[in-house]
Design brief:
With 422 residues, the protein is of the alpha+beta class. The protein is 22% helix and 42% strand.
Length: 422
């Protein structure tokens, strides 16, 4: 199919460049209802995304692009028509001109496949989750997806890169049946490989959290509190902090920060060190074919590098370092036990963290948390917290303990001091 596509693309003289992304996925899936296996299936797909580029305007100052999907064999005439339609659409896009990534011949990266059958791995995970259930707290639904994906990128400048990656996604819905009502939570987990101890801890935490949800009450007589974030909320916090430092953000003037500027104006707590990395050695290139290597964006609380795509790097006259999926941060010196020794709000479920550097805002709507008043742990829900981001960054505490996930490597928890509770 790649040969058919590239031949059709080369035959159109209006193209200044093109890129083909081939994604082949072998997915083993299992669905459980009330802790009983209902359905299993194995799905194999192969999809193609084609992007065409057309230079136009005076002295070819602009480049337009347009994409279309191909999921089956087409005749030469059908492909030619799709390409012509994409070129027509690209004529109306007036991006500043840029060059595609230049290739170095065929290159391949692969993660070592597991020796066990995917369905045996799925059963192992399911059994670990169900073992965590109690007579009143169990998993109403559990869906497990084991996927091995091969991504190939070919472009008109000689890029021909292939990588094979694997991951396991788990969607769990624990429920707690009490005498008054029934409550549920949704929990998502992603694994590169099965660590039985980690899977067990995740399952037990999901069951514990839904039991807390049942007992949660309205928070009272708490106007200010230290807030502890963990899990995906820590990842979201770090991504929000560096989002505007992408080449795209800098080009669009989303930030006024220059290299060397302080992200933390005053460091009373832990100094931030944030960067982007590869989910594994095989995750070696981005969607444009830029080879990836770890990049540090913030070091010792200061901005040390921008990051981002091939297109916007060229607009800024910089070398592209790529579009990454995995963010990382250095840990702190404080244990989680020490973090939790004083009164605090430990967030269990958050609607999402919001950060606005320019208005100085940080906050979020809390769906479930635990208030520790110094003696008792009280589950609470239905409130929000907010504060000043500059002060929060100045007093930030990062946990000594770390996590190593697919999309995030770094401290397991962070503590935001003196947040307003609303």
């Amino acid at each position: 199919m790649i040969k058919q596509l590239t031949a059709a693309l080369k035959a159109n003289p209006a193209l200044s460049g093109w890129l083909v992304n081939e994604t082949a996925t072998l997915s083993s899936q299992a669905f459980y209802v009330m802790q009983k296996k209902e359905t299993t299936r194995r799905v194999e797909t192969r999809e193609y995304q084609v992007t065409v580029y057309h230079r136009h305007g005076e002295q070819n100052a602009f480049v337009g692009s347009s994409s279309f999907a191909v999921s089956r064999k087409h005749s030469k005439a059908e492909l030619a028509k799709k390409i012509e339609e994409a070129v027509f659409a690209a004529r109306f896009v007036k991006n500043k001109a840029f060059d595609l990534v230049k290739g170095e011949g065929k290159r391949t990266w692969k993660e070592k496949p597991e020796s066990a059958d995917p369905f045996a791995i799925i059963d192992e995970i399911a059994n670990a989750f169900f073992a965590a259930a109690t007579p009143v707290s169990r998993f109403n639904a559990l869906e497990i997806f084991h996927a091995r994906q091969t991504i190939r990128i070919v472009n008109s400048e000689g890029v021909d890169d292939t990588k094979t990656l694997a991951k396991i996604d788990v969607e769990a819905i624990p429920s707690h049946d009490g005498p008054e009502r029934k409550v549920e939570l949704i929990r998502m987990f992603t694994y590169k490989k099965v660590d039985p101890d980690q899977v067990r801890k995740d399952a037990e935490a999901a069951i514990a959290d839904v039991a807390l949800r049942y007992d949660a009450r309205k928070i009272e007589n708490v106007a200010k509190a230290d807030v502890i974030l963990s899990g995906d909320d820590v990842e979201d916090f770090l991504r929000e902090l560096v989002a505007d430092f992408s080449y795209d953000g800098v080009y669009r003037k989303n930030t006024d920060k220059k290299i060397g500027d302080a992200i933390q104006s005053e460091i009373k707590g832990d100094a931030l060190s944030i960067g982007w990395t590869l989910s594994s050695k095989a995750d070696a290139f981005d969607r444009d074919g830029v080879l990836l290597a770890p990049v540090r964006v913030v070091e010792a609380g200061k901005l040390v590098s921008y990051y981002g795509s091939n297109q916007y790097a060229q607009y800024l006259g910089l070398k592209p370092n790529g579009v990454y999926g995995t963010i990382e941060a250095a840990p702190g010196k404080t244990t989680i036990a020490r973090m939790k020794a004083k009164p605090h709000l430990e967030i269990i479920a958050l609607s999402g963290i919001q950060i606005d550097i320019y208005s100085g805002y940080i906050g979020g709507e809390v769906r479930l948390a635990v208030w520790f008043d110094g003696k008792n742990r009280i589950p609470v829900s239905g409130f929000s917290f907010s504060g000043n981001i500059d002060k929060a960054l100045s007093d930030l505490v990062l946990s000594k303990e770390t996590v190593q996930g697919v999309r995030y490597h770094g401290p397991k928890c962070i503590l935001l001091k003196g947040m307003d509770v609303l």
